[in-house]
Design brief:
There is one protein chain. The chain is mainly beta. The chain has one domain (about 1-170): Immunoglobulin-like, CATH 2.60.40. The protein is about 5% helix and about 45% strand. β2 (about 40) and β3 form a beta hairpin. The longest helix is centred in the first third of the chain and has 12 residues, at about 1-15.
Length: about 170
């Protein structure tokens, strides 16, 4: 059983998401696991594989199919070789439960994992936070929620605490 978790984690690190339970006997299927600069209306604002220190926060978003009883998963944020934060999230019965977690950023190597209640790694992403190369290319946001180009600026869920996240049901 441990080798299955390792194989699933390795496959997910490469960006391959299989539509099958994460381990034998599991009712959880990770349908989506992406990194993003923000969450708006319970959806990721685009996806990214890189961050700079100017981003301030990174968000990990998961869409989970849970055909079993309500359960819990943990988002485990690792900075370098240390656990930076662990955020437990309740997952209800749904074909498309959405949940996310965020962390404040520091330059360096990061990893975030979604881990089952039984300790099995369901999904994993690694990324590096760099210092910005060009300070003049940063985007500013006005008070109306739009950036300087008129696009909707990323927003976190209003109830999401630092290192926390939110969770909710969708049927899609």
């Amino acid at each position: 059983m441990a080798s299955t978790g390792v194989l699933v984690g390795a496959a997910l690190t490469l960006g391959v998401l299989a539509a099958q339970p994460a381990w034998a006997g599991s009712s959880l299927v990770i349908r989506d696991f992406v990194m993003t600069h923000g969450i708006y209306e319970r959806e990721p604002v685009g996806t990214t594989e890189s961050f700079t220190i100017d981003d301030n926060q990174a968000y990990a978003f998961a869409r989970i199919n849970n055909e079993g009883e309500p359960t819990m998963v943990s988002f485990i944020w690792q900075y370098g070789n240390e656990t930076h934060a662990k955020v437990d999230m309740n997952i209800g019965t749904s074909s498309g439960w959405r949940t996310w977690s965020s962390t404040n950023l520091s330059p360096g190597k990061w990893r975030v994992q979604v881990v089952s209640q039984d300790g099995v790694i369901l999904a994993e992403r690694s990324f590096t936070v760099d210092n910005p190369i060009d300070q003049s290319s940063s985007t500013t946001t006005s008070n109306d929620g739009m950036d300087q180009d008129g696009a909707m600026a990323p927003q976190s869920h209003p109830d999401a605490p630092s290192y926390g996240g939110a969770t909710g049901r969708t049927d899609g």
